[in-house]
Design a protein that fits this description.
It is built from 1 helix and 26 strands. The chain has one helix at 2-8; strands at residues 22-25, 31-36, 39-45, 51-57, 60-63, 76-79, 85-91, 101-106, 111-114, 124-131, 134-140, 147-152, 155-160, 166-170, 173-178, 188-193, 200-204, 206-207, 212-221, 224-231, 236-243, 251-253, 263-267, 270-274, 279-281, 287-289.
Length: 291
């Protein structure tokens, strides 16, 4: 969106304020952070090169008791109807990126299982997110497989024919990241409601001679959809957000984040990020409209 290019011009003078940020984990392999109701989860790489799923609850960091896997976990954390922590993530057939299914870990049973409706033989399912009884996910494969889906009470519904690379679900809305085939610079964050209608584009990356921005890591929290934005010319990272219910002015953090940020999470009024140096809670990100 061209409005993004105009707004972002004023970010160039904003400072990175890392000194006051709080380190949640100093594990340099930490990636794909997710937050919900005081819970943080992420993926890390063990000494054997396989990924482990990690969680932090009440200040305690521990590995989740599920099998390690090749390739990073892509977790999203939430709570079940009974109030127990659940985490959804993808398992694939090796490193091929095909034959993937959505799995769920439930703290009530301390076991993992495939998510019914999001684990099929013909299609490949990935990029999951969870909200109580609903799981949103992407599906690829032959025929009518491709698209954005949601499964609730064992009923599967396709919401969009676009295949997302990331999703987040809250209430009756799904935010998702769409990357056109062959053009990774033109990512966009979109919103889709269960109630019908078409998806709405909230913000897009852009690529030009002097400016290049990429958006990733969509997060729904409260009345906003958040995302991570990368200035690919100046190699800077910051956060953005927009209102979910209607189009409106975009807001951006008053500061950039240090390091090469790979993901963000928002929960309980805090913004977290993983940047190749660990997982951090950002101090006073200060969202504001600019332009």
């Amino acid at each position: 969106m061209r409005v993004a290019a105009v707004v972002l011009g004023s970010l160039l003078a904003w400072p990175a304020a890392a000194d006051a940020d709080i380190a949640v984990s100093s594990d340099r392999t930490a990636a794909n952070v997710s937050a919900h109701h005081g819970q943080l989860v992420w993926s890390r790489i063990g000494a054997n090169g396989r990924a482990r799923l990690v969680r932090r609850v009440a200040g305690v960091v521990e590995d989740v008791p599920v099998a390690a896997k090749h390739g990073l976990f892509d977790p999203d954390t939430g709570t079940s109807k009974g109030g127990h922590q659940v985490i959804v993530y993808t398992r694939c057939a090796g490193l091929s990126g095909v034959g993937c299914d959505v799995w769920m870990y439930n703290e009530a049973t301390r076991r993992e299982h495939r998510v019914r409706g999001a684990a099929t033989k013909r299609c490949s399912e990935f990029a999951p997110s969870v909200w109580i009884r609903a799981v949103a996910f992407a599906r690829s494969g032959p025929g009518d497989c491709p698209g954005l889906y949601v499964v609730r009470r064992n009923h599967v519904r396709r919401l969009d024919r676009r295949v997302p690379s990331q999703t987040d679900i809250r209430g009756s809305r799904v935010a998702y990241l769409y990357t056109p085939a062959g053009d990774p610079s033109r990512t966009s964050v979109r919103l889709r409601s269960f109630s019908g209608g078409k998806s709405r584009r909230v913000v897009s990356g852009l690529a030009g001679e002097r400016e290049s921005y990429r958006v990733t890591s969509p997060v729904l929290e409260g009345r906003h959809v958040y995302w991570l934005q990368e200035d690919r010319v100046r190699h800077e990272f910051f956060g953005g957000r927009g209102v979910t219910k209607r189009p409106g002015r975009l807001e951006f953090t008053r500061r950039t984040f240090p390091g090469r940020v790979t993901s963000i999470a928002v929960g309980d009024g805090n913004l977290f990020y993983a940047n190749g140096g660990g997982v951090y809670a950002a101090a006073n990100p200060g969202f504001a409209a600019r332009g």
